[in-house]
Amino acid sequence: MRRAGPSGPVAPFFSVLLKSGVAAAVLLLAACQSEPMGGPLALEVSASNPVSALQRVNNAGAKCWIRSGDRRFRGLYMIPELDTAVGKPRLLILRSDKKQGLPLLVIEASGPPTKIVTYGPLASGATGARVNADIMRWSSGPDGC
């Protein structure tokens, strides 16, 4: 019994064509994503100490994320933990309806040299990309939304 489909020297050509077509389709779908994806941030900043770096992010973040009515941050609130005798200062972003839950995002500073890192479930999506871009901008000077 003979197998259906191309055979002989033409078969490898169709196999390569099929594989490249699938690869092209995957690339096209990836290119169609409307928003960039985020990820954990590790950024060295020019701040005198970790607390001052996070105070800047806290002030701008409260204004531009939490109080702005931005849909990405609706239902969230931010807790600054800047007065730490032990450990690293950090900002926690949690759901408003879960006062005792795990944070969705942690923004933490350490140093010297002063370094800001972000992690948590919120860091990995499009909101994480926005957070990272905002932190990088605020750390370099401008504090606008």
Automatic annotation (TrEMBL):
Keywords: Lipoprotein, Signal
Database matches in PROSITE patterns: PROKAR_LIPOPROTEIN
Presence of keyword Signal: yes
Signal peptide: 1-24
Highest taxon of source: Bacteria
Name by which UniProt lists this protein: Lipoprotein
